[in-house]
Amino acid sequence: MEIRTDGAAFKDMETDEEDSFQEGLEINRILENVSGEIACGHKSGIVMDINGNKVGKWSR
């Protein structure tokens, strides 16, 4: 899995500065989505952030 975490979805919403807590929340949300895709039998996919931006890819 590859995730680029330099976008707004991973930063503090008010200051637009790096925020490890917000970054962790977004990564967790992404991992839950990928887990669901794997459970449905998918073997690869695109990683999208909460804002709808492509931020990576995954495969198993």
TrEMBL record:
Residues 1-21 are annotated as: Disordered. Residues 1-13 have a biased composition (Basic and acidic residues). This is Uncharacterized protein. It comes from Blautia producta ATCC 27340 = DSM 2950.
